């Protein structure tokens, strides 16, 4: 009991320190024990006193017969890096465009800082958007593009110049200030778009697939840059993306969307390690979904009869199940180990034949064919350069996973 | 690979030279004839002018012709107020009609460009549809509409807006109506072509950055439509400067536009050299806006390169 109290005290102290110190220092601080590797100790959504900066309340939107947003509630907090993640057509872009004022909700309210945005035109909203196509004005130079939003504010010329220089320095484009957009590379255009959207110092920055047009290497670098800029400015970033890696790396929280609804709203770690349903488990990363029936409970373990494995598996879970309930056991490939001999102390052991091997350099993926014909995907980090006797095709191996490596899904 | 040894096949070479051959045969050669005519003198003869060069005397004749090069026609052009006045009238009509065409054409092109794709093509067809009928017949039709007992006056009388028929026929108003009506497609099409290419997200970006819709139009749509505005304006302005049919049919005898003056020099006065001089000066004057347009286009092409 006293330990828990002390723990809370430390967490509280950490939060107040975070407020006082420059944002940069927060990064890399050990967070509270939790699922996944935590980026930073920041969780205003867990604080009942915190007021969200963005609120969607029962928002609905249809386009003709198609439902784009289905009675959606969502709160996003100040300083949060929030990702809307989902396949194309899941409604994530519509949600963002409604916030910017380009679409009107059919029902429900959208509040920004507690102010209902109904009837407020796009040009009067305290948000700015970075467009997927960047939408840079082709007839204006880089500096003029960045100054555009400031000119609308009616600032003095000198002030505009100062702010433009500041922005150019932030995105490291000062030498290119006089270039036209078509004279820039894709990565440079992306930076101009970011600088232009941030020039007005919006409370909330909306980013529509901000890294979608960049190649892989540049995308990775830019992810971290975006995170640094967001921390430095302390602004709220709302990112729409279909790229789960992007969302996992950058976001404080992710809303996984499906058909106009939020399938799960949580931190990247929890989304990955504790998916709420089959859709999320399948959408994020690789997963083996073993369909089965709940049999009974042994201590804190559930016994699940899985026909695919030819028996029962034990899963550590506090899920409220009834015997006979249809469930799925979700196990990530990297949490399954394979051995040539049956591991004596393992709980869940599934024999199978190696069917496919995918060598990715850092990882090797093995697809096992189980007795019933189903496949099981496992992966292994290649921690050494040489392997004495590598596992090869058509070998019979034993896959095993710990009870707490799997998750029971009911949805 | 070196291009030196490469010889295009005959057909390909023909295609490459075809525009040059066409322009030489049907533009440069006739124009040179006109230029030569401009230095000649009217005569009661067949053809009704004196030859500039007396070929029967060989080189001496050419030398004599060069020495006695007659600039009388050009001198008369400047000194006789008739020509200057009709040129100025033409300039007035063409400029005013161009402005009107822009004001009418821009909203049409703008609405067209924002339509869904299927409907866009249908509406575009409607813009071009008048071309299916002869230009002359369409201008004649306006007589039926504009004359004192015509459709327009009948409609206005029936609505009670006027008590006696308006005299529109044979006035400048009728000429303006005719010009704007006839040249509207030439204004709408180039404007449409630039507006339809414009990325709509640019306007959204402008509004997102705090510009009102009016501001966004002024600082994004208008500058990006500039090449279309220039193309449409020139495409209308240049032929309207030399327009003959519309002022002749709708303007009555009072409307002295340069095209009509030219026509009456040719056919009423049978002064071919004078008419030729007018044509040469008109072309020289109109070259200026065309060159300006070319420069603008080059700049636009530069701006698009690499995008």
Automatic annotation (TrEMBL), chain A:
GO cellular component, one term: ATP-binding cassette (ABC) transporter complex
The keyword Cell membrane is annotated on this UniProt entry: yes
Gene Ontology terms describing biological process: putrescine transport
InterPro entries (UniProt xref): AAA+_ATPase, ABC_SmlMolc_Importer, ABC_transporter-like_ATP-bd, ABC_transporter-like_CS, Mo/tungstate-bd_C_term_dom, P-loop_NTPase, PotA-like, Transp-assoc_OB_typ2
GO MF term (any one): ATP hydrolysis activity
Enzyme Commission no: 7.6.2.11
Pfam families named among the record's database cross-references: ABC_tran, TOBE_2
Key words, A-Z: ATP-binding, Cell inner membrane, Cell membrane, Membrane, Nucleotide-binding, Translocase, Transport
Catalytic activity: ATP + H2O + polyamine-[polyamine-binding protein]Side 1 = ADP + phosphate + polyamineSide 2 + [polyamine-binding protein]Side 1
Region (Disordered): 1-31
SMART domains given in the database record: AAA
ABC transporter domain location: 54-284
Function, as annotated: Part of the ABC transporter complex PotABCD involved in spermidine/putrescine import. Responsible for energy coupling to the transport system.
Subunit structure: The complex is composed of two ATP-binding proteins (PotA), two transmembrane proteins (PotB and PotC) and a solute-binding protein (PotD).
Record-stated family: Belongs to the ABC transporter superfamily. Spermidine/putrescine importer (TC 3.A.1.11.1) family.
Protein name as it appears in the record: Spermidine/putrescine import ATP-binding protein PotA
Automatic annotation (TrEMBL), chain B:
A cellular-component GO term for this protein: plasma membrane
Compartments where located: Cell membrane
SUPFAM superfamilies from the UniProt entry: MetI-like
Coiled-coil region: none
Family matches, as Gene3D superfamilies: MetI-like
Domain ABC transmembrane type-1: 87-293
Primary subcellular site in the record, as a coarse category: membrane
Entries under InterPro entries matching the protein: MetI-like, MetI-like_sf
One Gene Ontology biological process: transmembrane transport
Family annotation (PROSITE patterns): ABC_TM1 (PS50928)
Protein keywords: Cell membrane, Membrane, Transmembrane, Transmembrane helix, Transport
CDD domains documented for this protein: TM_PBP2
Pfam families registered for this protein in UniProt: BPD_transp_1 (PF00528)
The keyword Cell membrane appears for this protein: yes
Bilayer topology annotation: Multi-pass membrane protein
Transmembrane segments: 20-39, 91-113, 122-143, 224-246, 272-293
Family stated for the protein in its record: Belongs to the binding-protein-dependent transport system permease family. CysTW subfamily.
Protein name: Putrescine transport system permease protein
Species assigned in the record: Camelimonas lactis
